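Hey, why these numbers?
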Amino acid sequence: MPTPPLALLPLDELLLQGGVALLYLVFVVLTALALALARWVKARGNLQLQAGLLSPLGSLYTLTTAFLLSNVIFQFTNLRTALTQEVVTINKLGAVMSVLPAEQRIEARRLLYDYGESIARDEAQTMRHGQRSELTQERIDRLRDFLASPDASPPEREQSTPESASYLRKASDFGFDLIDARERRLSLARQTFPTRLWLAIAVMYFALALLAFLVQGGAWTTTWVATILLLAAPVPAVMLFVYANPIANGLIDITATLDAVLERSL
């Protein structure tokens, strides 16, 4: 499927695709504003600021971004765990259905395959924006209805085996586990990074850059201060953006994960 031109993409999709570049642009603008303000302040008087103030302010910026990043990475880890649990449950449910007669087994695995395919093709896209897929909801409802019907029960006249003896309990448990895993995955995908936190990071960086330019003098020193700030300070913010949107940024490839499971197990 060809990628539409950027001009035709919705605003939220543009922000997801160009978020890293936009963040660096914001830091460049903040650095330029801090430099301009520092020059304006210096032109109106000789400030007696201590360079030692940079250390606590820099530490505060580092600790704040590290704390926020640790929380975002924790949510990312939970999302990956939820997806893994869902994949494992699909595998288990497909294996349990092997005890059914051929016609029932084909229908059961078709419904399970359709559910997994709808996640890979449809819900993987809607989750980029923290939304659920109506198609996936419809297909898991069909699978649930099948598991709740007599068609999902093996014939009583069949010879009992260790697998068939526990089939009904396992099919019911795995069916509910699949629903729970999907809801957990969707809930974690809706986690967002509030605008006020981005604003707090921007204010702290602006204060750090302003103080750095105020306590340093000379064009050569100022150039290196600006270069170091632009090389180091945006990195935590970029990592926050990437880990806050792991699906859009490719940290979690739902489509590839589900395709592998469907090809191997169903």
Remarks:
- The chain has a mean pLDDT of 86.
